[in-house]
């Protein structure tokens, strides 16, 4: 199971020059760009190493799931990055382990996305309120809705007061 998978991919970090983080089957390469050309060279080297590793261990990476994300306000030209001669597309927002990041470091996209999910689930609870007990509804709220409101809040809770008010306008379970 999961332990065997972690043992299987444990050597993926060998010969990687950029920072790399592994979480289950999610791998992230990142680098602080001081010299664009040198940083791109490091990342392309590492992508080549990952490609070689994948061929050796018969693992297939899906290039369409790879994203290039920059945490910068200004737009500038960045040389392309490639995995197996497939260019990696640049995205304007990036969701990593359920947290949405934007180049400006603000949390509007993350909070908006979570708020939409919460309202969808609240709608489901409303349809069930005449069918299941109050106790069951409480358990569903605690299991399926509250975690969305609290997940990674230690990271995104530095948002503006206005966003906090907007986020807190989501319903709390009061029956």
Characteristic terms for this protein:
two-stranded antiparallel ribbon, alpha+beta, 175 residues, 45% helix, globular, 6 helices, two-stranded parallel sheet, 8 strands
Explain the overall architecture:
With 175 residues, the chain is an alpha+beta fold. α3 runs antiparallel to α4 (134-150). 45% of the residues lie in helices and 14% in strands. The longest helix has 21 residues, at 36-56. It is globular. A hairpin with a 2-residue loop joins β1 and β2 (26-30). The model has no long low-confidence stretch (mean pLDDT 82). The protein has helices at residues 2-9, 36-56, 108-128, 134-150, 153-156, 161-168; strands at residues 19-23, 26-30, 67-68, 82-83, 86-87, 89-90, 94-96, 99-101. It contains 6 helices and 8 strands. It has a two-stranded antiparallel ribbon with strand order 1-2. A two-stranded parallel ribbon has the order 3-6. A two-stranded antiparallel sheet has the order 4-5.
How many helices in DSSP terms?
Answer: 6
The quaternary organization reads as: single chain
What is the mean predicted local confidence, pLDDT? 82
Strands of the largest sheet, in order across it?
A: 1-2
The largest sheet, given as strand count, sense and whether it forms a barrel, is: 2 strands, antiparallel
Q: How would you classify the helix and strand content by structural class? A: alpha+beta
Runs with pLDDT <50, length 5+? none
């Amino acid at each position: 199971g999961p332990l065997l998978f972690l043992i299987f991919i444990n050597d993926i970090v060998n010969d990687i020059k950029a920072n790399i983080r592994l979480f289950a089957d999610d791998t992230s390469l990142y680098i602080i760009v001081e010299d664009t050309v040198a940083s791109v060279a490091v990342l392309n080297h590492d992508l080549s190493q990952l490609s070689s590793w994948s061929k050796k261990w018969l693992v297939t990476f899906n290039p369409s799931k790879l994203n290039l994300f920059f945490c910068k306000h200004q737009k500038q030209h960045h040389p392309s990055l490639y995995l197996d001669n497939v260019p990696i597309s640049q995205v304007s927002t990036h969701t990593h382990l359920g947290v949405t990041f934007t180049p400006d470091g603000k949390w509007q996209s993350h909070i908006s996305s979570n708020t939409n999910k919460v309202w969808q689930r609240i709608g489901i609870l409303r349809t069930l309120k005449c069918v299941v007990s109050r106790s069951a509804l409480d358990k569903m709220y605690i299991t399926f809705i509250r975690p969305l409101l609290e997940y990674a809040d230690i990271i995104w809770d530095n948002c503006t007061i206005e966003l906090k008010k907007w986020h807190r306008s989501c319903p709390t379970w009061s029956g």
